[in-house]
Amino acid sequence: MKKYFLLAGLYLIIFLAGAQELKSPDNNLTMNFTLQGNGIPTYTLSYKNKEVIKPSKLGLSIKSEKESLFDNFTLTDTKTATVDERWNPVWGEYKSVRSQYNELAVTLTQKETNRKLLVRFRLFNDGLGFRYEFPQQPNLIYFIIKEERTQFAMTGNHTAFWLAGDYDTQEYDYTESRLTEIRGLMKSAITGNASQTPFSPTGVQTALMMKTDDGLFINLHEAALLNYACMHLNLDDQNLIFESWLTPDAKGEKGNIQAPATSPWRTVLVSDDARKILASQLIYNLNEPSKIEDTSWIKPTKYVGVWWEMITGKSTWSYTNDFPSVQLGVTDYSNAKPNGTHGATTANVKKYIDFAAQHGFDGVLVEGWNVGWEDWFGNAKDYVFDFQTPYPDFNLTELRDYAKSKNVKLIMHHETSGSTRNYERHLDAAFAFMKNNNYDAVKTGYVGNILPKGYYHYDQWTVNHYQYVVEKAAQYKIMVNAHEAVRPTGLARTWPNLIGNESARGTEFQAFGGSKPNHVTILPFTRLLGGPMDYTPGVFEMDISKVNPTNNSHCNSTLANQLALYLTMYSPLQMAADLPENYNRFLDAFQFIKDVAVDWDDSRYLEAEPGDYITVARQAKGTGQWFLGSVNGETPRTSTIKLDFLQPGKEYVATIYADAKDAHYKTNPQVYTITKVVATSQSILSQWVAPGGGYAVSFVEADKAATKGLKKLKTK
Ligand code: NOJ
Ligand code: CA
């Protein structure tokens, strides 16, 4: 009897505190919401009865007489929903994506102020998403966010793969360490083009990948970042609690909100199987369906470019070194002195168009075609580009017609030099100019400090700028690949013309000194969760001094690893970055880049361990053909996989591009083997992989390829 009363009392307390439980559809995940102590909203998360997120507070501080939007709440309404639906992406890793979750929306009303805050939770089988909603109400109309105060309390001193907190760049190598080691390693984690000191000695970026000592994989990120500042995470390393840290604007404010409004989703992916983190579509599922009705003009693209030669320093973006064009209106370059190293000359671009046409590529990116680069490199601190005036040695009309005759598309380049307002002012004219000249894709760039002064790459205003460009481009039926823009959060579902982003350390760093060999085994667990990356793989000459004698960089990757990246770095936009002359030296390996698809009906993550290796097989859209890629970190290994994704009863010719036995990313990166074998769905493939190595496989149905004399793969 006593027990009974005790229990009833407990339930009453829980009820008054607003305790709510939410389960994932498969029951593996449980989220609990309560109001603690002084009406403080709090949540926890567990996976298969293991705690993932300890009691963590929710809320915000705002500029107001009553700053707190994080306590003194009562629970005034709850709503639940169950959703199970499918959607078909315009491009992607899967033909169709399932979005299955249970939802709980709690409305909180603040005593005294009578302000209302709604928190919406969605629990999927692979993780949690939640966001703040600010309903229309008399007591909270316009407000400024001082800080968002969302916590993610960790259960232990996990291993993390992290990037130093920075409001302007993500172009770092990852640091792998325990959470408590972040503080000590922060200085060494800031490298190269750091634009500033980190905002805090324990501040990191999302997507943050972690592994617990008992084998759970946890990932923290955000989804649908719209009209809001990008979130970083600040670690209280005494208590192992992460707290949201928004990017401030020039005034130090962290968000200007007008209700009704919503925050982006905060996401927690969880699994005991690393492959499920890679396969997760949770971040896309938290974004709205496509707002573009006719998507027929959005085309997955494989391209080459007049680019690597500039990145390596073999040629230049500028046509001249000494002509100051920074005064607006100065566009006559006929008297400017050519520097003799300009990359985007008519003759050179034609060479790339010929190469693209010969090998079946869709596009040719040309950088350094327009006037202004000499000012920018000459350190003109203000806007320099008009996006419409070609250098005198770049004959746009001739190249437009030449590309057309070869059935190749030129890809436009708009380096904004970080001057967002200048770009916005020129945007309509620049896009109309593209359309008039047969361009339907643009690579944008935001190198340098953002102008207007004081703004950052990831604040609310600059986030809005990137979105403005994507939406404006959609009006013109233009595809966008934005470099140095904010990290993607799944918005490509809503705006599928956003076919690429950089927003991480790409292949260019292999020509700026090199990247860690395991970098590519981490990116799919972090940066790629929010959207595709224009990583620009395909470097065949790792000794960069062979491209430009004054550049001593080394590309820390084997040639076979470079091939595998076309599978492991999912993107509907893939570049073959190296120079045509380097591909001509290895045409047998280049065949894989020519063959590999860029759009998929299905993807199977076969092996995965962040920092160590990733193996994925993908089925090409429409053709049924399978491709496979595996990338490796520092430690050599044997990858053993079942080929049970192949259609049963069929035979395939598998062409395996692999590291030779003595391959090594540093000392011997260019040695590889190409082997043809017969494979079926019963086959087992055991493949040795070099340090910084990899392998790539294409599977062709046997009735389309000769099997005569080929060995069969073993089945045990
Ligand atoms: C940095 C970009 O990542 C690179 O791809 C581009 O070539 C340069 N900026 C110049 O815009
Ligand atoms: Ca870049």
Describe this structure in words.
- Helix content is 17%, strand content 32%.
- The protein has 716 residues and is of the alpha+beta class.
- It folds into 2 domains: 3-285, Beta-galactosidase, Chain A, domain 5; 301-599, Alpha-Beta Barrel (TIM Barrel), CATH 3.20.20.
- Helix 11 (559-568) runs parallel beside helix 13.
- The longest helix has 17 residues, at 420-436.
- The termini are far apart.
- Bound molecules: 1-deoxynojirimycin and calcium ion.
Summarize it.
This protein has 716 residues and is an alpha+beta fold. The strands form seven sheets. Strands 7, 8, 9, 10, 13, 14, 16, 17, 21 and 22 form a ten-stranded antiparallel sheet that branches. Strands 28-27-26-25-24-23-29 form a seven-stranded parallel sheet. Strands 30-31-32-37-34-35-38 form a seven-stranded mixed sheet.
Number of individual domains: 2
Regarding quaternary structure, what we see is single chain
CATH architecture of the largest domain: Alpha-Beta Barrel
User: Alpha-carbon distance between the termini?
Assistant: 62 Å
